[in-house]
Structure formats: structure tokens, C-alpha cells
Write a structure and sequence with these properties.
FAD/NAD(P)-binding domain; FAD binding; 14 helices; six-stranded mixed sheet; alpha/beta; binds flavin-adenine dinucleotide; PheA/TfdB_FAD_monoxygenase; 403 residues
């Protein structure tokens, strides 16, 4: 079997894996990314990148570079109870330097990070390469065995990073345990052509039926996500598409034409709204980052921001690990020590909000009233800031920033 040697092997070329690879390559650490897909085209994934993501890019001096790629700026958000606006987000008030969120398809973001990383000779990436086994020596991870096309090969590394997402293979192979896990809600996604008179913004639609999130998407489309309680989607599918068409039109009349064109459930992508925290993210020679270590629900659209912030901290710790030639659990655990408190807070918010979004029929009736009242309090603005902004810059060495 062929064997390749590198310094850091990153399993998974999603946002967290690609950003970590770029930062390490810049620091002259040899890095090899393994991505199981053939390219960056993938099923619909997170596209809304919040001001906290842009703050992080700014800290790394990458914001201007990333914004050269196709995207759409979203400057406002609004909360509606049926057709009445009860609250708003003005991104201009959220952050001075990044007074907007952006909508950028994930393949575009990944391509941007790839092109930048490919400028460094210490960067390597293999697509269509799926991890099968972990190479262990004396209780330490020394790399992985990967199936690359028809070929199996060993990639040996001083540090192996699991950036392979919420269903992480590395997490399973290495028996990482969860500290907590929650799955109560599904978000059912679809897109329609952007309605002409619709402002280009994010809109949260609250009713005593399903709650719905809508956002302008790059390419003149509107992305819509409808929230259902965990078991509800299966029941809806059993009831058939005709009944669901009526539900959709009841949520908003803009969906009438789309509903009329439906013959089956194919245009819908369900996202399990999972939230979990892995108890300990590192073992000797190995660390989990991003969704593999700490998965957030779609509430607040912060998944990419949280995953990438962990990747940046991981880059800082890994640079230190190479300087000190120390790849132990204790060294790599510093990533978790720095990132966990903030992620716990976001998880706690998301749990509370999710309880309001999918709850008992009685509470559903009360929801519009409760949210209208909440929107009038200062707490509402405080929650927005807590979700959308990084509380402080990431504690990293300035050497990680680009010129
Ligand atoms: C439908 C949907 C909508 C979302 N909306 C938003 C949003 O608007 N904003 C937001 O911030 N977040 C959103 N999220 C969450 C966001 O997509 C994730 O939090 C983010 O992508 C996590 O990044 P990651 O790099 O940790 O993992 P991932 O993006 O999951 O990347 C993991 C990578 O690892 C690869 N991989 C998996 N297993 C293997 C293996 N065995 N070998 C090699 N490679 C492997 C996968 O192919 C993938 O490319 C959404 C998620 C979904 C599913």
C-alpha cells in the first residue's frame, strides 16, 4: 500500500477544514486535506454568513479577498407575526465595520479558501478520498487509511484533524463520546424565484402554524426553511403532497405558484436540527473541530461561523504544537478550553428558541403574543447581538493574519 507523509492530515474539506488548511499552509506546516466528495458541489448547505463570520475574516485580513467572490449582502432582517412586522434586525446597528450578513453559496466559499490555500507549496488536497481507518501506534493517532478512487493509501501525520462534519467518521472510529445531544426539530428547505416586491432581507415568519425562515439568496432566489417538530415531517409525507400544498400556501401567499407546481416532495431538503457537544475533542495526535466536535442547530445561522472560529483557534494551537514538538491530548485540548464556553452559550440560546418554535398546540397559540411582547423589550436586541456578533476578537497570534 502506498504511504504519504505530511504534518497535519485534515479529514473533511468543509468550511472548518479548508480554513484550517489555509492557515496552516500559510504557516509553512505541511497539510493534506482529504475530502470524500469529488468536488465542492454539494447539496444545499448554509449560505448565510453572519457578521460574526465577517468579523473573524477581518481579524485574519481575509474579508476583502472572500468578498471578491459572488455573494449578496443582507442589510436587514425582520420578524413577522402573520403579516404584521413586530421586530427587526438592522445589521448596521449590529456591527460598525460589517453592517451586513452575506449570502454566499457554500461551494463558492470553499472554492475561495481552496484557491488561496493552493498558492502555498505546503498545501495538498485529495478529493474523492474517504477515510476508512485510523493508524494507531502506542495509543497515539499517526494518520489515516483512505480510499481514494479505487486505491487505498496511508496518510501518516503528526496531527490528524477530524473536520468531517456532524456525521464524522473520525469521531466514530475514535470513539469520541457526546456530553449532550438534542434533536427536536426538522427544518424543511426549498427555494423559489425571488418575489419581485420582496425586500432583499432575512425574514422570520411566526404564526400559530409552522414557523418559517426566509432569506434572499445569491442568484435571485428566495431560500425558505419551515420548522416542524421532529416526528411531524414523516407524518406530513404520509399524508401526501396535496395536503402539504395547502400548509405551504397558508404560511405565505407568495408560495402559491410554487405549491401549485408540486407533484412530490423532491424539491424539499430536510435538515435535522441537531445540537451536540463532544465531551473531549482531543486525543493524542488527533483533534475534532467544527460540526464534528460541536454541532449547532440552524437557529441564528451560526454553524459556519462557529465551526470556522474553532478552526482558527485550532490553527493557533497546532502552530504552537509544532513549535514545541508536542502533539499530546493536553496540548490539543487547549482548543476546546478556548472555544467551549462561547459554544455552550449559543447552544443554550438555541435550546430556548427551539422550544418556542416547536412546542405544544397550546403554546403555539400563545407564541405570536409572547414574541410580539418580547420584541418590545431590550432583551430582544441583546439576544440578536449575542447570536450575530463575536463577543471579543479571537485570542490568536497576529502571525495567522494575512498581509
Ligand atoms: C440545510 C443546511 C442549512 C444550513 N444553513 C446554515 C446557514 O445559513 N449559515 C450557517 O452558518 N450554517 C448553516 N448550516 C450549518 C453549516 O452548514 C455547518 O455548520 C458547517 O458547514 C459546518 O462546517 P464543517 O466544516 O465543520 O463541516 P461540514 O460543512 O459538514 O464539512 C465536512 C466535510 O467533510 C467531508 N467528509 C465527511 N466524511 C468524510 C470522510 N469519511 N472522509 C473524507 N471527507 C469526509 C464532507 O463531505 C464535508 O465536505 C446549515 C446546514 C445545513 C445542512
Amino acid at each position: 500500500m502506498k504511504t504519504l507523509e505530511t504534518d497535519v492530515c485534515i479529514v473533511g474539506g468543509g468550511p472548518a477544514g479548508m480554513l484550517l488548511a489555509l492557515l496552516l499552509a500559510k504557516m509553512n506546516i505541511r497539510v493534506h486535506v482529504l475530502e470524500k466528495q469529488k468536488n465542492f458541489d454539494r447539496e444545499y448547505r448554509g449560505e448565510i454568513l453572519q457578521p460574526r463570520f465577517l468579523q473573524m475574516l477581518e481579524q485574519l485580513n481575509l474579508k476583502e479577498y472572500v468578498e471578491r467572490f459572488p455573494h449578496e449582502k443582507l442589510k436587514q432582517g425582520a420578524f413577522y407575526v402573520r403579516d404584521r412586522q413586530i421586530g427587526s434586525i438592522n445589521f448596521q446597528n449590529v456591527h460598525r465595520n460589517s453592517p451586513y450578513a452575506i449570502s454566499m453559496p457554500q461551494p463558492v466559499l470553499l472554492q475561495a479558501l481552496y484557491e488561496k490555500a493552493a498558492q502555498y507549496p505546503s498545501f495538498e488536497m485529495s478529493f474523492h478520498s474517504s477515510v476508512q481507518k485510523v493508524i494507531m501506534e502506542d495509543g497515539t493517532v499517526k494518520g489515516v487509511t483512505v480510499k481514494s478512487g479505487d486505491e487505498e493509501l496511508d496518510i501518516r501525520a503528526k496531527i490528524t484533524v477530524g473536520a468531517d462534519g456532524r456525521f464524522s467518521t473520525l469521531r466514530r472510529l475514535m470513539n469520541f463520546a457526546f456530553e449532550y445531544e438534542q434533536y427536536n426539530m426538522d427544518l424543511i428547505w426549498f427555494t423559489i424565484e425571488h418575489p419581485e416586491h420582496w425586500e432583499r432581507m432575512l425574514r422570520f415568519q411566526i404564526s400559530n402554524g409552522p414557523t418559517c425562515i426566509m432569506g434572499s439568496k445569491y442568484g435571485n432566489r428566495l431560500q425558505v426553511g419551515i420548522a416542524f417538530k421532529r416526528e411531524e415531517w414523516e407524518t406530513i409525507k404520509q399524508q401526501g403532497i396535496e395536503a402539504f400544498k395547502e400548509t405551504i400556501v397558508r404560511i405565505h401567499p407568495y408560495f402559491k405558484e410554487f405549491a401549485g407546481s408540486l407533484t412530490d416532495f423532491k424539491p424539499f431538503t430536510p435538515l435535522q436540527s441537531k445540537l451536540f457537544m463532544v465531551k473531549q475533542w482531543a486525543k493524542d495526535g488527533c483533534i475534532l473541530i467544527g460540526d464534528a466536535a460541536h454541532c449547532a442547530t440552524p437557529i441564528g445561522a451560526v454553524g459556519v461561523s462557529l465551526s470556522c472560529a474553532t478552526a482558527v483557534i485550532a490553527a493557533d494551537v497546532i502552530v504552537k504544537a509544532f513549535q514545541e514538538n508536542d502533539f499530546s491530548t493536553e496540548m490539543l485540548n487547549q482548543v476546546q478550553t478556548m472555544r467551549e464556553p462561547e459554544i455552550r452559550k449559543i447552544h443554550a440560546f438555541q435550546k430556548k428558541i427551539e422550544n418556542v418554535m416547536v412546542d405544544s398546540p397550546f403554546l403555539r397559540k400563545m407564541r405570536p403574543i409572547a414574541i410580539t411582547l418580547l420584541a418590545k423589550t431590550p432583551l430582544f436586541a441583546k439576544i440578536q447581538k449575542r447570536m450575530l456578533l463575536m463577543p471579543t476578537p479571537l485570542p490568536i497570534h497576529p502571525q495567522l493574519s494575512f498581509e
